[in-house]
Amino acid sequence: MVGEHHFILDLAIVLGSSALGGFIANRLRQPVLLGYLLSGLLVGPFGFGLLNDLDNIKALAEIGVAFLLFALGVEFSLAELKRFKDIAIQGSILQIGLTIIVVAVSSLLLGWVESFTQGIFLGAILSLSSTAVVLKTLTERGETNTVHGQVMLAILIAQDLALGLMLAILPALNDPQNLGVTLTIAILKVAIFFSAAFVAGYWLIPPLMKTIARTENSELFLLTVIALCLGVALITAKLGLSIEMGAFVAGLAIAEIDYSDQALAKILPLRDTFASLFFASIGMLIDPVILWQNIGAIIGLVVLVMLGKALIIFPIILKFGYSLKTATTASLGLNQIGEFSFVLALVALNLGAIARDDYLLLLGTTAITLVLTPIGLKFAPRLADKLLRIPAIAKYFRQRQSDTAFSLPDGINGHIVVAGYGRVGQVVVNILRDRDYPVLVIENSEAAIQRLRHEGIPYIFGDGDSELVLEKARLETAKALAIALPDPNSTRLLLKHALEFAPNLNIVARSHTNSEIDLLTQLGAKEVVQPEFEAALEMGASMLGSLGEARLSIDEAIRTIRTNRYLSIRPKLTRHSLKKDVSDAADHIHNEWVEIPNPSPLHGMTLAEANIRNLTGVTVMTVQRGNKTLYYPKGERRLKSGDRVLVVGQRAEVSVFQDLIRGHLSLNAGELQWTSLPEDSPLIGTTPAQLETKYDIKVEALRRHGHLYRPVESEMTLEQEDYLLILGQRDRVNRISQVHS
Questions:
Q1: Three-state SS for 438?
Q2: What's the pLDDT score for residue 595?
Q3: Cα 365 from Cα 91, distance rounded (Å)
Q4: pLDDT of residue 512
Q5: Which of 445, 562, 669, 701 maximizes the CB count within 10 A of its CB?
Q6: Helix axes 32-43, 260-284, angle to 10 degrees
Q7: What does each C-alpha distance from 157 to 6, 93, 514, 566, 624 come to in angstroms?
Q8: Whole-number Å distance between alpha carbons of 522 and 476
Q9: What does the alpha-carbon distance between residue 53 and residue 57 come to, in Å, rounded to a whole number?
Q10: What is the phi/psi pair of residue 217, to 5°?
Q11: Is the peptide bond prior to 688 cis by the omega test (within 30 degrees of 0)?
């Protein structure tokens, strides 16, 4: 009984500290798994020593890993896996093989190992990445269904499959004579397991789950799901393969049946609970003394490992036709050492392939790389944007984009651009085509591109938020843009970039969460659609109709709810959540706090009257006045001198905004208006100086291919699809608008 009480106490300490660490990390706007890792360090044997017997915690941590991979398998169906089979198989073989070769050769030449066999062991340890950490981070960021998320998970799954072979083959390297036999046995085990899994997944599991579901007993259904997950994981462990492989395959089997959503909903609370134990158990392995005593060597190893793996993974992903953003994000997301490298490292230690001091250094290095992974994923999109600003890189990818498959009719205009051809995007495209609207789809999935090509739908292959892609979409001549991307960050960036190309473009965006509705509206979307709310509105409308309500009254009620951004039916956001949403959005777009000077032409004006976004391109996200802070200010908000405003936009756009509030771009000097130059405009080929002479107006700013120019050179030749910000008397500005059209 005493032992049982000790176990319960240990479990309570780990869960309690993980909850506290996760809460603190969340408040600091960091991934909660960093809080779990730190809590494990603090309560573990190398911290305050509240836990010294880690065996029971490690056993529960393995269950957490099994549940993580099982849930991934349920969501990551075979149909999805087929889309990424090339990068999963060929790309993973290249990544693992190159990592092992590079590490083995370099470590032998540098004298870090005594034999090539030891170098191979070290290379195998470093070749694996962390499925648990990457999956948890992607889940928190809502990016598991994005292209970069799917690419990373496909490679990680292949690595997990390779782990079983490594555990079978690497020990045999000490006895090369039996290597062939060992390799044959390992391959035979994998073949037998997958054959049995296929038979069970097709003939046994579906009728079993159907029978259990008919009992309508939720407890029995949950127990069956748990038994299936852990049972298959146990089988793979007994075969000498990884428990990750078994849990993932069990999830794949469930994914193909009708009860997959119910199974996933039941397992998620258990997954999150036990996963926290797993991350805490990794934190318990970190010895701060060892880290401090070898801080220089460990920092060097961390930099070497993370930079080296990123440089290996980056060109591999580019080779398979993915974009710079996908390659950058995936390479920074997979450049850590995986938690199951601990298993290989322990095998190497027992076989004498690595010394104990090296093993401890490896543990410290691994722990630090795991901690840095969420940070790398957070800043990867920003790094990709900075890389694309380098002229040589931008030229290469612009040429690469030109060489990439795309189908774009000559002289397309008046079209509707649909970004994303998933389930939502396909419905939007079908609705538009049924009414004979010209459609152009932006998509970065090769499988989706094949469907578009087969159906004869114009498309551009690439990331929707890429400026190189948007250059080809001719947004300046488009009627509207529908954003149906699965990635919240890409949705925000695409919305901002699209308005840089076409400030007056009508944009409808899909919201992934309730909190995004205000954010996307503030960034300039004309309409924001929340799929769950829309489904609820249709259900409510049907219900009211069946109760005898007049259709006109129902339509008016729904229209009011949509016009008010679903405010009457969605939970009210707290100030903390509002602040977090604004900060998250600003993290991915250039932002600055600007104080409105005294005097300023904007003093006393409302945001609607100032027309700030249309005139400058920046979006006002927050207004601070004294001790009060207003997030997502609406058009009727009046500005005063002394207000501090948070604006997001390009540096050039922020500079124009600063000119506006200082009176250098006066709103009282005449009419300010953006106007575009279509293909047949007589103004094409003229210069701003000629316009000023002929029409007595001034070109204050010019947008060309998403870039803002201010001041505008007087002899700059105007081109088709340029957007001009012209200043002058109302009649002259209107005359220009008539001339260009």
A1: coil
A2: 92
A3: 25
A4: 82
A5: 701
A6: 40
A7: 36, 12, 32, 40, 48
A8: 21
A9: 8
A10: -110, 110
A11: no
Cα angle 22-25-31, degrees, rounded to a multiple of 5: 85
pLDDT of residue 737: 64
- Residue 598 is given by DSSP the state S
| Residues 493 and 465 sit within 8 Å (Cβ to Cβ) | yes
In whole angstroms, how far apart are CA 139 and each of 15, 143, 290, 293, 590?
20, 6, 32, 35, 25
Beta bridge partners of 567: none
- Give the other-Cβ count within 10 Å of 321's Cβ: 15
pLDDT value, residue 308? 94
pTM of the model as a whole: 0.72
Residue 702 to residue 718: CA distance in whole angstroms:
9
Beta carbons of 367 and 286 less than 8 angstroms apart: yes
Q: Label the pairing between strands 506-510 and 480-483.
A: parallel
pLDDT, mean over the chain: 83
Residue 228 one-letter amino acid: L
Residue 701 forms beta bridges with which residues? Answer: 725
The CA–CA distances, whole Å, from 515 to 132, 284, 579, 580, 621 equal 27, 36, 11, 10, 14
- The answer to whether 594 touches 655, Cβ cutoff 8 Å, is no
Are 341 and 131 in contact, with CB atoms under 8 Å apart?
no
d(CA 421, CA 612): 33
> In this structure, what token pair is assigned to residue 224?
């069956």
Three-state secondary structure string covering 657-699: HHHHHHCCCCCCCCEEEEEECCCCCCCCCCCHHHHHHHHCCEE
Side-chain half-sphere exposure of 695, counting CA atoms within 13 A: 25
CA dihedral 63, 66, 71, 75 (to 10 degrees): 180
d(CA 64, CA 278) in angstroms, rounded, equals: 6
Q: Which residue has the tokens 């579906």?
A: 206
> Low-confidence residues of the chain, pLDDT below 70?
1-5, 29, 31, 53-54, 76-83, 164, 168, 174-179, 241-242, 398-407, 410, 665-671, 737-741
Q: Show the CA angle centred on residue 409, arms to residues 408 and 413, nearest 5°.
A: 100
Instruction: Tell me how many degrees the CA angle 288-292-297 measures, rounded to the nearest 5.
Output: 120
Cα–Cα distance for residue pair 704/684, rounded to 1 Å: 13
Type of residue found at 591: N
The pLDDT of residue 401 is 59
Dihedral of alpha carbons 436, 440, 441, 446, sign: positive
What is the 3-class SS of 278-303, one letter each residue?
Answer: HHHHHHHCCCHHHHHHCHHHHHHHHH
Q: Residues 255, 75: contact at Cβ < 8 Å?
A: yes
